Amino acid sequence: MAKALNKIMDALDIETYLVCNNAQEGRKLVQQLGEELNLGDLDIMYEEFDGYGMRVRLRKYVYKPGNKYNWLSENE
Amino acid sequence: MTKKILCVPLDPVHDVGIKLIRNALDKNGYDTTLLAPDLTMEAIVKYAVKDNYDYILVSRTLGYGVAELLARFNDLLDAAGVREKSKIVVGGKPITPELAAELGFDKGFGAQSTVEEVVAYIGGKEINFAQNGIQREKGSITKEYSYKFVNTEIGDLLSSIADKLIKYANVRTTDAIERAKIKEEIIVERDAEKRKVLSKKYAELCDRVIVDANENKLYPKGVRYLGDNELIELKRFLNDNHAVLPAKIQHNSSQPLVFKFLGSGCPTMDIVHAKVCERWGIDGFLIINPSWEARYEGLIDGYLTHENDGTITSFENIKLMRESLDPSTLLTVRAHRGLNTPETILLAGMAGADLAKINLVYGSLGAGTDPSRLAVDGVEAIKLAARFNMPFDIPGNDELSGVPAWKSLAGQLINVMVGIKLGAKPILKPLFCLGPHIVINGQMNKNYVDFNSAKIKALRSIVDCPIWPGEPIAFMTQSEERVQSANATSYHAALAATLGVDAITIASTDEAYSRGPICVTSRIDSIRAVSDAFKFVGNSKFQTTPECDFYTEDLISKIKDVLTAVNEKADLPEAINAGLLGNEEDGAYPGKFGKDTVKMK
Fold first, then answer.
1. Can you say whether the dihedral through the CA atoms of B455, B460, B464, B466 is positive or negative?
2. CB burial class (10 A; 0-12, 13-18, 19+) of residue B525?
3. B173: pLDDT confidence band, cut at 50, 70 and 90?
4. pLDDT digit string (tens) for B132-144?
5. Which terminal residue of chain B, N or C, has fewer Cβ atoms less than 10 Å from its own Cβ?
6. Taking CB atoms and an 8 Å cutoff, what residues of chain A touch B276?
7. Of B222, B482, B520, the CB nearest to A15
8. B526 shares contact with chain A (CB less than 8 Å)
9. With contacts defined as CB-CB under 8 Å, which chain B residues touch A10?
10. Distance in Å, alpha carbon of B512 to nearest chain A alpha carbon
């Protein structure tokens, strides 16, 4: 059976709020989150630390233009 | 015999949907009874057994525990013998046909079902509203315009400027014009040997990078040929998948057509994005090519994919995109600057594109093309656009480099007049943006409505010509934050709709994120936002402040001053080189690509 991750057309976005003491800690948590979710490095599209934590918009590109898209293949 | 229907809001509060359905059923002559909301299930069952209802329509809006609740309700109806005499139909936001069937209902209607669909079902004329494929007519941006100049003083100035420009271009030529002629012969030539000879002739007029790619398959970094398998897979994907329940963005017929950019680099990715966007109601797309394409003499042939920003505008790529889109979807090809402007228009026309993008002023500013070169190429490009009956839009993105709005609009108007004189159909494209000049001078400090509205009003007071704010609307007001970006787009879209413009180009909610390609969910985000904005404003208008009138008059006056100064010069290239349509202080300077390449005929 095809992996669901391969069925993502292009990118997986994660929007969440990370409780942290400062933006630097927030960014570290983003990297940790990527590892914990087995997604590797996550791109931080948007971050805003507000004193309590950090609102983030994160992105993992599954396919970039020019890649071979598994969702396009018949057997996937 | 008239069918009897019991309408049941099985909900503590919400009964709007079932009321709408009841009204429609009444109008169709059915005998309906509507119960009050917030009755217990037992009380409802008592009503249901009292009479012989043909249908019991149950409406449930809230989603929490809905399956359990409906299952219990169905059991109660069953126990009371109601199911033997009545068909039980359930509807509501959380309902899917699958859930309805699973719970034992005769039919289910969900969030996307329509009142008409329910009425058709009751009437025994069940219609499959879940249609496959886009079903709409192709929109036209230019058909209702006379292209007459209301402001004759400005019209006369433009006429003089355009005449001088056309005269300037008519006695000159460039390699780009020659290449376009050869390329046309190559495309129509069936004899392989003759094609080879023509290709060699074409190569003689190209830069080495392009020759290497076309003759030796040595492509620029990040470019590769799209293999046969990939094309077959794409075709299969497009055959196997179709838009279900296609959405419409416009809330009424006078609201603008909505365009999006395509330019991921990969035509396959562009096409699948486009197909999804078509389903969500997008009316057209603009192919954005890589910026390096504008710097080389000549274009690369074939089905090509590119790992970086911008999709290569080969004949094959444009044709593939055109043929993959729904026939009702408009396709625009960018040719507003660069060393291949005439050829790009030719390819667009021959590949069946609907529109083109040309601005021989903006294209000559900033990192653009030499003004003399683009003057000659641009006139030829407009002639080709006219020949292929492709209206061309005139992007005013010079404002983003700091050029004041009146200079950008003056430049656009020059293109309009040239277009008219050459038999083409130009489209004005003022920016709805927070450009650097506006930031510095504060025209939008109080609101974003007055100055953007003033641009439209000023242009309308000058010429009867289609207007398509771009590009995209809300430029420089959007951040990487998704909701903020969607909101900024939707507010500007709402303003555009209330101003009655013909089309808009909208960004995706990740447009401001510059470190990666646009993704499809971000495209859907902004489409949804605009759709809601159109619904919100409907046929109402924004109320501008008196400052809008001041800005309008000021723009008209300054446009006239700019055009007067341009007209005093011998020709348009001289005016651009003198900085009359954007100078170094503004942040613009004459383009350098193709300098000293214009030849006298």
1. positive
2. buried
3. very high
4. 677 888 999 998 8
5. N
6. 9
7. B482
8. no
9. 269, 273, 517, 519-520
10. 9
Q: Mind telling me how many Å the CA of B237 is from chain A's nearest CA?
A: 6
- B233 touches A at CB < 8 Å: yes
Q: How many CB pairs under 8 A join A and B?
A: 73
Find the helix or strand (DSSP H, E) in which A37 lies.
Answer: none
Token pair of B475 as six digits: 């430029």
pLDDT over 70 at B38, yes or no: yes
At residue B68, the pLDDT reads 85
The residue among B131 and B1 whose pLDDT is bigger is B1
For residue B409, the surrounding DSSP H or E stretch is helix B405-421
Between B86-100, B429-443, B522-536, the lowest mean confidence (pLDDT) is in B86-100
- What parts of chain A have a pLDDT lower than 70? 1, 74-76
User: Which residue among A11, A15, A66 sits closest to B519, beta carbon to beta carbon?
Assistant: A11
Q: Which residue of A has its CA nearest to B303?
A: A66
Say if residues B588 and B403 touch (Cβ distance below 8 Å): yes
Pick from B420, B214, B220, B419: which is nearest to B336 by CA? B419
What are the CB-based long-range contacts (under 8 Å, 24+) for B44-49?
B44/B8, B44/B10, B44/B73, B45/B76, B45/B77, B45/B80, B45/B82, B47/B6, B47/B8, B48/B6, B48/B8, B48/B77, B48/B80, B48/B82, B48/B86, B49/B80, B49/B81, B49/B82
- In the predicted structure, residue B242 carries a pLDDT above the cut 60: yes
Residues 30-59 of A with CB under 8 A from B: 43, 45-46, 48, 55, 57, 59
Residue B541 reports pLDDT greater than 90: yes
Q: In what order do the strands lie in the sheet with B330-334?
A: B426-429, B392-395, B355-357, B330-334, B284-287, B257-262, B503-506
Residue of chain A minimizing CA distance to B308:
A65
Residue with tokens 């402001």: B151
Cβ neighbour number for residue B208 with a 10 Å cutoff: 12
Query: Is A60's Cβ below 8 Å from some Cβ in B?
Result: no
CA distance A33 to A40: 9
- Residue type, position B232, single letter: I
Q: How far is A36 from chain B (nearest CA, A)?
A: 23
Please give the full DSSP string across B342-390, using - where no structure is assigned.
HHHHHHHHHTT-SEEE--TTGGGBSS-B-HHHHHHHHHHHHHHHHHTT-
Question: What's residue B63's pLDDT?
Answer: 66
Tell whether B312 lies on the interface with A, counting CB pairs under 8 A.
no
pLDDT tens figures, B300-321: 999 999 988 899 999 999 999 9
Mean pLDDT of B494-520: 95
